[in-house]
């Protein structure tokens, strides 16, 4: 609803010979039947809000077999690290429970368990990579993709050190 302005001039007489005038401005809403006086349209300027630009899209992950399984690709070190983590924990658990060293465990049917575990873990690791899921996409907090790589590297070294120590010692470590 537009408001109209009525200007009323009221003379103020002073003792001087030159009269001065003051202007009073009042606004009132038009009554029914009175014409509405339109004011020039002014749109208020919206406040400027600094919105950060959206993050750049993640680079497209290659799903080619040769890229995923390349020497510097995402799969080989992760799969070997995961197998080493499982192998180290399993070897230590069996050694603590039965007293068998790593070489005895391998000779007593450990090869079949290793092959089965390797196939299942490799397939489980490759399926998301072939679907285009990045290795870094789900990592946050303590469980990052870098932490997994380092844990896998330490497990690989631990498994080799365990086998070497038992070979030199000639018996189980524990």
From TrEMBL:
A GO-annotated cellular component: chloroplast thylakoid membrane
PANTHER family: UPF0041 BRAIN PROTEIN 44-RELATED
Record membrane topology: Multi-pass membrane protein
Localization annotation: Membrane
Name of the featured protein: Chlorophyll A-B binding protein
Chief location category: membrane
Organism: Lactuca sativa
Lineage of origin: Eukaryota, Viridiplantae, Streptophyta, Embryophyta, Tracheophyta
Location of the region described as Disordered in the Swiss-Prot/TrEMBL record: 25-57
Keyword terms of this UniProt record: Membrane, Transmembrane, Transmembrane helix
Transmembrane region(s): none
